[in-house]
Amino acid sequence: MFKLSSEASLDGAITVENKFIVEYMPYADGDYVKVYLYGLSLAARKSDADDSVDRLARRLDLDEHTVSAAIDYWTEQGLMSRLGDDICYFSPRNARPKIKKYDVDKYREFNRQAQLYIAARQISPNEYNEYYALMEKLDLEWQAMVLIVKYCVDLKGDNVSCPYITTVARNLAADGYRTFDDVGERLDEYGVYYNELLRVLGGKHPDHEAVQFYKKWKMTYKFDKDVIYHVAQNVKRGGAAAIDAKLTGYYELGLTTAEQIDKYEEDRKNLYKLTKAVNKALGLYYDNVDPEITAYIKPWLGLGFEPNAIIAAADYCMRKDIKRLSDLDAVIRDLFERGLTTEKQVRDSVDHENRFDAKIEKLFKTLNIKGAVKDIQRAYYANWAEKWAMPQALIDYAAEISADKANPFAYINAVLQSWHNDGITEVSKAKSAAPPTGNTQQPTAPTGVVFERYTEEQLNSMFTRITEDDD
Fold it and tell me: What is the pTM of this model?
Protein backbone atom coordinates (compact mmCIF):
# COMPACT_ATOMS: atom_id res chain seq x y z
CA MET A 1 0.00 0.00 0.00
CA PHE A 2 1.26 3.47 -0.88
CA LYS A 3 1.00 6.11 1.80
CA LEU A 4 2.44 9.48 2.77
CA SER A 5 4.59 10.19 5.75
CA SER A 6 3.29 13.08 7.84
CA GLU A 7 5.77 15.61 6.41
CA ALA A 8 4.93 14.65 2.82
CA SER A 9 1.21 15.32 3.21
CA LEU A 10 -0.36 18.74 3.25
CA ASP A 11 -4.16 18.85 3.55
CA GLY A 12 -4.55 15.98 1.10
CA ALA A 13 -2.67 17.80 -1.69
CA ILE A 14 0.31 16.19 -3.40
CA THR A 15 3.37 18.36 -3.77
CA VAL A 16 6.18 17.41 -6.13
CA GLU A 17 8.99 19.40 -4.63
CA ASN A 18 11.55 21.31 -6.64
CA LYS A 19 14.30 19.31 -4.99
CA PHE A 20 12.91 16.13 -6.51
CA ILE A 21 12.62 17.73 -9.94
CA VAL A 22 16.10 19.28 -9.87
CA GLU A 23 18.18 16.75 -7.96
CA TYR A 24 16.51 13.39 -8.49
CA MET A 25 14.38 13.34 -11.63
CA PRO A 26 17.13 14.24 -14.17
CA TYR A 27 19.12 11.13 -13.32
CA ALA A 28 16.26 8.65 -13.05
CA ASP A 29 14.92 6.38 -15.73
CA GLY A 30 11.67 7.68 -17.24
CA ASP A 31 9.71 4.60 -16.16
CA TYR A 32 11.01 5.04 -12.62
CA VAL A 33 9.71 8.62 -12.59
CA LYS A 34 6.29 7.38 -13.79
CA VAL A 35 6.18 4.87 -10.96
CA TYR A 36 7.19 7.52 -8.41
CA LEU A 37 4.53 10.04 -9.48
CA TYR A 38 1.70 7.56 -9.92
CA GLY A 39 2.51 5.89 -6.62
CA LEU A 40 2.52 9.32 -4.98
CA SER A 41 -1.04 9.91 -6.21
CA LEU A 42 -2.09 6.50 -4.91
CA ALA A 43 -0.59 7.28 -1.53
CA ALA A 44 -2.72 10.44 -1.35
CA ARG A 45 -5.91 8.57 -2.27
CA LYS A 46 -5.13 5.98 0.44
CA SER A 47 -7.61 3.36 -0.80
CA ASP A 48 -7.63 2.76 -4.53
CA ALA A 49 -8.23 -0.18 -6.86
CA ASP A 50 -4.73 0.26 -8.29
CA ASP A 51 -3.08 0.26 -4.85
CA SER A 52 -0.78 -2.70 -5.49
CA VAL A 53 2.36 -3.33 -7.50
CA ASP A 54 0.71 -5.60 -10.07
CA ARG A 55 -2.21 -3.22 -10.70
CA LEU A 56 0.07 -0.22 -10.84
CA ALA A 57 2.16 -2.07 -13.43
CA ARG A 58 -0.89 -2.72 -15.59
CA ARG A 59 -2.08 0.88 -15.31
CA LEU A 60 1.33 2.20 -16.40
CA ASP A 61 1.77 -0.51 -19.06
CA LEU A 62 4.93 -1.74 -17.34
CA ASP A 63 5.99 -5.16 -16.12
CA GLU A 64 6.06 -5.84 -12.40
CA HIS A 65 9.84 -6.28 -12.46
CA THR A 66 10.25 -2.68 -13.69
CA VAL A 67 7.88 -1.37 -11.01
CA SER A 68 9.73 -3.29 -8.29
CA ALA A 69 13.08 -2.08 -9.64
CA ALA A 70 11.77 1.49 -9.56
CA ILE A 71 10.68 1.13 -5.94
CA ASP A 72 14.11 -0.29 -5.05
CA TYR A 73 15.75 2.63 -6.82
CA TRP A 74 13.75 5.28 -4.96
CA THR A 75 14.34 3.41 -1.72
CA GLU A 76 18.09 3.64 -2.33
CA GLN A 77 17.61 7.37 -2.97
CA GLY A 78 15.92 7.70 0.40
CA LEU A 79 12.56 8.82 -1.05
CA MET A 80 10.70 5.62 -0.16
CA SER A 81 10.76 2.80 2.31
CA ARG A 82 9.41 -0.66 1.67
CA LEU A 83 8.25 -3.09 4.33
CA GLY A 84 6.37 -6.04 2.86
CA ASP A 85 3.52 -4.62 0.78
CA ASP A 86 3.67 -1.24 2.50
CA ILE A 87 5.52 1.50 0.63
CA CYS A 88 5.98 4.84 2.34
CA TYR A 89 6.96 8.09 0.63
CA PHE A 90 9.32 10.60 2.26
CA SER A 91 9.79 14.23 1.45
CA PRO A 92 12.96 14.94 -0.59
CA ARG A 93 13.85 17.53 2.06
CA ASN A 94 14.25 14.74 4.61
CA ALA A 95 15.54 12.04 2.30
CA ARG A 96 18.38 9.90 3.61
CA PRO A 97 19.82 8.09 0.62
CA LYS A 98 21.69 4.90 1.21
CA ILE A 99 25.34 5.84 0.96
CA LYS A 100 27.25 3.46 -1.25
CA LYS A 101 30.94 4.02 -1.71
CA TYR A 102 32.61 3.08 -4.97
CA ASP A 103 36.24 2.33 -5.70
CA VAL A 104 37.59 5.64 -6.97
CA ASP A 105 40.57 4.02 -8.65
CA LYS A 106 38.38 1.45 -10.39
CA TYR A 107 36.40 4.12 -12.20
CA ARG A 108 39.05 6.84 -12.53
CA GLU A 109 39.68 6.12 -16.23
CA PHE A 110 35.96 5.83 -16.91
CA ASN A 111 35.46 9.27 -15.35
CA ARG A 112 38.16 10.79 -17.52
CA GLN A 113 36.94 9.31 -20.81
CA ALA A 114 33.26 9.95 -20.11
CA GLN A 115 34.01 13.62 -19.39
CA LEU A 116 35.99 13.87 -22.65
CA TYR A 117 32.96 12.78 -24.64
CA ILE A 118 30.43 14.82 -22.64
CA ALA A 119 32.44 17.99 -23.14
CA ALA A 120 29.63 20.55 -23.07
CA ARG A 121 28.90 20.18 -19.36
CA GLN A 122 30.50 19.02 -16.16
CA ILE A 123 29.38 15.57 -15.03
CA SER A 124 28.12 15.85 -11.46
CA PRO A 125 28.98 13.41 -8.65
CA ASN A 126 25.35 12.23 -8.61
CA GLU A 127 25.50 11.43 -12.31
CA TYR A 128 28.77 9.51 -11.86
CA ASN A 129 27.12 7.55 -9.06
CA GLU A 130 24.28 6.63 -11.40
CA TYR A 131 26.79 5.18 -13.88
CA TYR A 132 28.71 3.34 -11.13
CA ALA A 133 25.52 1.83 -9.68
CA LEU A 134 24.34 0.75 -13.12
CA MET A 135 27.64 -0.85 -14.08
CA GLU A 136 27.80 -2.82 -10.85
CA LYS A 137 24.13 -3.81 -10.91
CA LEU A 138 24.27 -4.96 -14.56
CA ASP A 139 27.81 -6.34 -14.37
CA LEU A 140 28.72 -3.98 -17.21
CA GLU A 141 32.41 -3.40 -17.99
CA TRP A 142 33.42 0.23 -17.60
CA GLN A 143 35.07 0.12 -21.05
CA ALA A 144 31.70 -0.97 -22.48
CA MET A 145 30.03 1.90 -20.63
CA VAL A 146 32.46 4.33 -22.23
CA LEU A 147 31.43 2.99 -25.66
CA ILE A 148 27.81 3.55 -24.73
CA VAL A 149 28.51 7.14 -23.63
CA LYS A 150 30.29 7.84 -26.94
CA TYR A 151 27.48 6.24 -28.92
CA CYS A 152 24.86 8.36 -27.14
CA VAL A 153 26.87 11.55 -27.64
CA ASP A 154 27.16 10.74 -31.36
CA LEU A 155 23.37 10.35 -31.51
CA LYS A 156 22.18 13.20 -29.29
CA GLY A 157 25.15 15.57 -28.99
CA ASP A 158 27.41 16.18 -26.00
CA ASN A 159 24.49 17.59 -23.99
CA VAL A 160 22.98 14.10 -23.88
CA SER A 161 21.19 13.39 -20.60
CA CYS A 162 22.12 10.81 -18.00
CA PRO A 163 18.74 8.99 -18.22
CA TYR A 164 19.18 8.55 -21.97
CA ILE A 165 22.63 7.00 -21.51
CA THR A 166 21.48 4.70 -18.73
CA THR A 167 18.44 3.60 -20.74
CA VAL A 168 20.63 2.57 -23.68
CA ALA A 169 22.94 0.72 -21.28
CA ARG A 170 19.98 -1.15 -19.72
CA ASN A 171 18.65 -2.14 -23.13
CA LEU A 172 21.99 -3.51 -24.23
CA ALA A 173 22.51 -5.38 -20.98
CA ALA A 174 19.00 -6.83 -21.19
CA ASP A 175 19.95 -8.25 -24.60
CA GLY A 176 23.07 -9.80 -23.08
CA TYR A 177 25.67 -7.24 -24.20
CA ARG A 178 27.88 -6.32 -21.23
CA THR A 179 31.51 -6.65 -22.31
CA PHE A 180 33.60 -4.22 -24.32
CA ASP A 181 33.75 -6.55 -27.33
CA ASP A 182 30.06 -7.47 -27.31
CA VAL A 183 28.86 -3.90 -26.86
CA GLY A 184 31.30 -2.66 -29.51
CA GLU A 185 30.09 -5.24 -32.03
CA ARG A 186 26.44 -4.43 -31.37
CA LEU A 187 26.99 -0.67 -31.61
CA ASP A 188 28.85 -1.16 -34.90
CA GLU A 189 25.75 -3.00 -36.12
CA TYR A 190 23.62 -0.13 -34.87
CA GLY A 191 25.89 2.21 -36.83
CA VAL A 192 24.93 0.43 -40.05
CA TYR A 193 21.26 0.75 -39.14
CA TYR A 194 21.84 4.38 -38.24
CA ASN A 195 23.13 5.26 -41.72
CA GLU A 196 20.25 3.47 -43.43
CA LEU A 197 17.78 5.08 -41.03
CA LEU A 198 19.04 8.55 -41.89
CA ARG A 199 17.55 8.07 -45.38
CA VAL A 200 14.30 6.72 -43.96
CA LEU A 201 13.90 9.74 -41.66
CA GLY A 202 14.73 12.21 -44.40
CA GLY A 203 18.12 13.16 -43.01
CA LYS A 204 16.90 13.65 -39.45
CA HIS A 205 19.32 12.13 -36.95
CA PRO A 206 17.74 9.04 -35.38
CA ASP A 207 18.00 8.33 -31.68
CA HIS A 208 18.65 4.96 -30.08
CA GLU A 209 14.95 4.11 -29.94
CA ALA A 210 14.65 4.73 -33.68
CA VAL A 211 17.66 2.49 -34.33
CA GLN A 212 16.03 -0.26 -32.26
CA PHE A 213 12.87 0.15 -34.31
CA TYR A 214 14.87 -0.20 -37.50
CA LYS A 215 16.54 -3.36 -36.22
CA LYS A 216 13.11 -4.83 -35.51
CA TRP A 217 11.82 -3.91 -38.97
CA LYS A 218 14.75 -5.65 -40.65
CA MET A 219 15.56 -8.56 -38.34
CA THR A 220 12.15 -9.50 -36.89
CA TYR A 221 9.69 -8.31 -39.55
CA LYS A 222 12.11 -9.09 -42.42
CA PHE A 223 11.19 -5.95 -44.38
CA ASP A 224 13.53 -4.95 -47.19
CA LYS A 225 15.12 -1.55 -46.60
CA ASP A 226 13.50 -0.20 -49.80
CA VAL A 227 10.06 -1.24 -48.50
CA ILE A 228 10.79 0.53 -45.21
CA TYR A 229 11.79 3.65 -47.10
CA HIS A 230 8.67 3.40 -49.31
CA VAL A 231 6.39 3.25 -46.25
CA ALA A 232 8.24 6.10 -44.54
CA GLN A 233 7.60 8.35 -47.55
CA ASN A 234 3.87 8.22 -46.78
CA VAL A 235 4.23 8.98 -43.06
CA LYS A 236 4.11 12.74 -42.72
CA ARG A 237 4.44 13.12 -38.95
CA GLY A 238 5.32 11.10 -35.86
CA GLY A 239 8.83 10.03 -36.87
CA ALA A 240 10.10 6.51 -36.27
CA ALA A 241 7.28 5.64 -33.86
CA ALA A 242 4.65 6.40 -36.52
CA ILE A 243 6.56 4.37 -39.11
CA ASP A 244 6.78 1.52 -36.61
CA ALA A 245 3.01 1.56 -36.12
CA LYS A 246 2.49 1.32 -39.88
CA LEU A 247 5.03 -1.45 -40.42
CA THR A 248 3.75 -3.43 -37.45
CA GLY A 249 0.25 -3.29 -38.94
CA TYR A 250 1.49 -4.46 -42.35
CA TYR A 251 3.50 -7.24 -40.73
CA GLU A 252 0.44 -8.49 -38.85
CA LEU A 253 -1.55 -8.44 -42.11
CA GLY A 254 1.16 -10.41 -43.91
CA LEU A 255 1.97 -7.58 -46.33
CA THR A 256 5.65 -7.69 -47.25
CA THR A 257 6.07 -5.90 -50.59
CA ALA A 258 5.51 -2.29 -51.64
CA GLU A 259 2.92 -3.45 -54.19
CA GLN A 260 0.89 -5.31 -51.57
CA ILE A 261 1.05 -2.36 -49.18
CA ASP A 262 0.02 0.14 -51.87
CA LYS A 263 -2.95 -2.00 -52.92
CA TYR A 264 -4.03 -2.38 -49.30
CA GLU A 265 -3.83 1.38 -48.71
CA GLU A 266 -5.70 2.14 -51.94
CA ASP A 267 -8.47 -0.30 -50.99
CA ARG A 268 -8.55 1.18 -47.49
CA LYS A 269 -8.77 4.70 -48.91
CA ASN A 270 -11.67 3.67 -51.15
CA LEU A 271 -13.44 2.05 -48.20
CA TYR A 272 -13.22 5.28 -46.20
CA LYS A 273 -14.37 7.30 -49.22
CA LEU A 274 -17.38 5.00 -49.73
CA THR A 275 -18.25 5.04 -46.03
CA LYS A 276 -18.19 8.83 -45.88
CA ALA A 277 -20.40 9.02 -48.99
CA VAL A 278 -22.93 6.66 -47.39
CA ASN A 279 -22.92 8.64 -44.14
CA LYS A 280 -23.32 11.92 -46.01
CA ALA A 281 -26.36 10.55 -47.85
CA LEU A 282 -27.92 9.43 -44.56
CA GLY A 283 -26.96 12.60 -42.71
CA LEU A 284 -24.70 10.72 -40.27
CA TYR A 285 -21.32 11.58 -38.82
CA TYR A 286 -18.89 9.37 -36.90
CA ASP A 287 -15.40 10.26 -35.69
CA ASN A 288 -14.34 6.65 -36.13
CA VAL A 289 -15.90 4.79 -39.08
CA ASP A 290 -13.85 1.59 -38.67
CA PRO A 291 -16.67 -0.28 -36.86
CA GLU A 292 -19.09 0.75 -39.62
CA ILE A 293 -16.70 -0.52 -42.28
CA THR A 294 -16.37 -3.85 -40.50
CA ALA A 295 -20.08 -4.31 -39.73
CA TYR A 296 -21.64 -2.98 -42.95
CA ILE A 297 -19.45 -1.72 -45.81
CA LYS A 298 -17.21 -4.78 -46.17
CA PRO A 299 -20.12 -7.27 -45.93
CA TRP A 300 -22.06 -5.31 -48.57
CA LEU A 301 -19.09 -5.33 -50.91
CA GLY A 302 -18.68 -9.01 -50.10
CA LEU A 303 -22.19 -9.61 -51.47
CA GLY A 304 -20.98 -8.28 -54.82
CA PHE A 305 -22.41 -4.75 -54.69
CA GLU A 306 -20.73 -2.05 -56.70
CA PRO A 307 -19.68 0.87 -54.47
CA ASN A 308 -21.94 3.23 -56.42
CA ALA A 309 -24.84 0.80 -56.00
CA ILE A 310 -24.46 1.13 -52.23
CA ILE A 311 -24.45 4.92 -52.57
CA ALA A 312 -27.57 4.71 -54.76
CA ALA A 313 -29.31 2.67 -52.05
CA ALA A 314 -28.25 5.25 -49.45
CA ASP A 315 -29.64 8.05 -51.65
CA TYR A 316 -32.93 6.15 -51.83
CA CYS A 317 -33.03 5.85 -48.03
CA MET A 318 -32.34 9.55 -47.67
CA ARG A 319 -35.36 10.37 -49.84
CA LYS A 320 -37.41 7.96 -47.74
CA ASP A 321 -36.19 9.66 -44.56
CA ILE A 322 -34.47 6.41 -43.50
CA LYS A 323 -31.36 7.39 -41.57
CA ARG A 324 -30.13 4.32 -39.70
CA LEU A 325 -27.42 2.01 -40.96
CA SER A 326 -29.40 -1.01 -39.80
CA ASP A 327 -32.31 0.10 -42.01
CA LEU A 328 -30.01 0.66 -44.97
CA ASP A 329 -28.67 -2.84 -44.34
CA ALA A 330 -32.22 -4.20 -44.69
CA VAL A 331 -32.59 -2.34 -47.99
CA ILE A 332 -29.25 -3.72 -49.22
CA ARG A 333 -30.28 -7.28 -48.27
CA ASP A 334 -33.59 -6.86 -50.08
CA LEU A 335 -31.78 -5.67 -53.21
CA PHE A 336 -29.43 -8.62 -53.01
CA GLU A 337 -32.31 -11.10 -52.81
CA ARG A 338 -33.72 -9.50 -55.97
CA GLY A 339 -30.36 -9.75 -57.73
CA LEU A 340 -29.86 -5.97 -57.94
CA THR A 341 -26.19 -5.30 -57.19
CA THR A 342 -25.05 -2.77 -59.81
CA GLU A 343 -25.63 0.97 -59.71
CA LYS A 344 -27.74 0.83 -62.88
CA GLN A 345 -29.92 -1.96 -61.53
CA VAL A 346 -30.53 -0.14 -58.25
CA ARG A 347 -31.28 3.21 -59.89
CA ASP A 348 -33.52 1.56 -62.52
CA SER A 349 -35.44 -0.16 -59.71
CA VAL A 350 -35.89 3.13 -57.89
CA ASP A 351 -36.93 4.88 -61.12
CA HIS A 352 -39.45 2.12 -61.80
CA GLU A 353 -40.89 2.48 -58.32
CA ASN A 354 -41.21 6.25 -58.80
CA ARG A 355 -42.44 6.09 -62.42
CA PHE A 356 -45.83 7.62 -61.60
CA ASP A 357 -44.62 10.22 -59.08
CA ALA A 358 -45.06 13.19 -61.43
CA LYS A 359 -48.64 12.20 -62.22
CA ILE A 360 -49.43 11.53 -58.56
CA GLU A 361 -48.03 14.95 -57.60
CA LYS A 362 -50.35 16.48 -60.21
CA LEU A 363 -53.26 14.72 -58.50
CA PHE A 364 -52.05 16.15 -55.17
CA LYS A 365 -52.69 19.67 -56.50
CA THR A 366 -56.25 18.74 -57.46
CA LEU A 367 -56.86 17.06 -54.10
CA ASN A 368 -54.99 19.73 -52.11
CA ILE A 369 -52.72 17.06 -50.56
CA LYS A 370 -49.33 18.20 -49.30
CA GLY A 371 -46.19 16.18 -48.67
CA ALA A 372 -44.14 13.53 -50.44
CA VAL A 373 -45.59 10.70 -52.49
CA LYS A 374 -46.05 7.54 -50.38
CA ASP A 375 -45.60 3.91 -51.34
CA ILE A 376 -49.31 3.13 -50.91
CA GLN A 377 -50.19 5.90 -53.37
CA ARG A 378 -47.67 4.49 -55.86
CA ALA A 379 -49.24 1.04 -55.45
CA TYR A 380 -52.74 2.40 -56.06
CA TYR A 381 -51.71 4.38 -59.12
CA ALA A 382 -49.86 1.42 -60.64
CA ASN A 383 -53.00 -0.67 -60.14
CA TRP A 384 -55.19 1.94 -61.83
CA ALA A 385 -52.92 2.66 -64.77
CA GLU A 386 -51.40 -0.74 -65.46
CA LYS A 387 -53.71 -3.47 -64.16
CA TRP A 388 -57.06 -1.74 -64.72
CA ALA A 389 -55.77 0.24 -67.75
CA MET A 390 -57.67 3.35 -66.68
CA PRO A 391 -57.15 6.31 -69.06
CA GLN A 392 -55.47 9.33 -67.55
CA ALA A 393 -58.47 11.49 -68.28
CA LEU A 394 -60.66 9.14 -66.23
CA ILE A 395 -58.23 9.21 -63.30
CA ASP A 396 -58.11 13.02 -63.46
CA TYR A 397 -61.95 13.19 -63.44
CA ALA A 398 -62.10 10.84 -60.44
CA ALA A 399 -59.73 13.22 -58.65
CA GLU A 400 -61.98 16.21 -59.44
CA ILE A 401 -65.04 14.62 -57.82
CA SER A 402 -62.97 13.40 -54.83
CA ALA A 403 -61.37 16.74 -53.91
CA ASP A 404 -63.88 17.62 -51.20
CA LYS A 405 -63.81 14.21 -49.52
CA ALA A 406 -62.33 13.58 -46.08
CA ASN A 407 -60.02 10.91 -47.48
CA PRO A 408 -59.72 11.95 -51.13
CA PHE A 409 -57.12 9.45 -52.33
CA ALA A 410 -59.07 6.54 -50.85
CA TYR A 411 -62.21 7.93 -52.46
CA ILE A 412 -60.55 8.00 -55.88
CA ASN A 413 -59.69 4.35 -55.45
CA ALA A 414 -63.28 3.48 -54.58
CA VAL A 415 -64.61 5.46 -57.55
CA LEU A 416 -62.21 3.90 -60.03
CA GLN A 417 -62.84 0.42 -58.66
CA SER A 418 -66.58 0.92 -59.15
CA TRP A 419 -66.06 2.14 -62.73
CA HIS A 420 -63.69 -0.72 -63.46
CA ASN A 421 -66.26 -3.25 -62.22
CA ASP A 422 -68.91 -1.61 -64.45
CA GLY A 423 -66.60 -1.54 -67.47
CA ILE A 424 -66.55 2.26 -67.67
CA THR A 425 -63.49 3.66 -69.49
CA GLU A 426 -64.76 7.04 -70.76
CA VAL A 427 -65.34 10.28 -68.85
CA SER A 428 -68.74 10.83 -70.51
CA LYS A 429 -70.05 7.48 -69.22
CA ALA A 430 -68.49 8.06 -65.79
CA LYS A 431 -70.40 11.34 -65.42
CA SER A 432 -73.70 9.55 -65.81
CA ALA A 433 -72.79 6.68 -63.48
CA ALA A 434 -73.97 6.56 -59.89
CA PRO A 435 -71.35 7.54 -57.25
CA PRO A 436 -69.79 4.68 -55.28
CA THR A 437 -71.47 3.59 -52.05
CA GLY A 438 -70.00 2.14 -48.86
CA ASN A 439 -67.18 3.15 -46.52
CA THR A 440 -64.40 5.07 -48.29
CA GLN A 441 -62.82 6.60 -45.20
CA GLN A 442 -60.08 3.97 -45.07
CA PRO A 443 -58.27 2.85 -48.20
CA THR A 444 -59.13 -0.47 -49.72
CA ALA A 445 -56.14 -2.43 -50.93
CA PRO A 446 -55.86 -2.49 -54.73
CA THR A 447 -56.27 -5.92 -56.25
CA GLY A 448 -52.98 -7.79 -55.94
CA VAL A 449 -51.64 -5.52 -53.18
CA VAL A 450 -51.40 -7.12 -49.73
CA PHE A 451 -51.43 -4.99 -46.58
CA GLU A 452 -49.72 -6.28 -43.44
CA ARG A 453 -49.11 -4.86 -39.99
CA TYR A 454 -45.49 -4.03 -39.17
CA THR A 455 -43.57 -2.47 -36.35
CA GLU A 456 -42.10 0.99 -36.96
CA GLU A 457 -38.63 -0.54 -37.30
CA GLN A 458 -39.88 -3.06 -39.88
CA LEU A 459 -41.62 -0.34 -41.83
CA ASN A 460 -38.50 1.80 -41.95
CA SER A 461 -36.41 -1.10 -43.18
CA MET A 462 -38.55 -2.00 -46.21
CA PHE A 463 -37.45 -1.06 -49.71
CA THR A 464 -40.50 -1.09 -51.98
CA ARG A 465 -43.29 -1.98 -49.67
CA ILE A 466 -46.41 -0.11 -48.55
CA THR A 467 -45.37 1.72 -45.41
CA GLU A 468 -48.36 3.74 -44.25
CA ASP A 469 -51.91 4.73 -45.11
CA ASP A 470 -52.52 7.97 -46.95
CA ASP A 471 -54.24 10.87 -45.26
Answer: 0.46
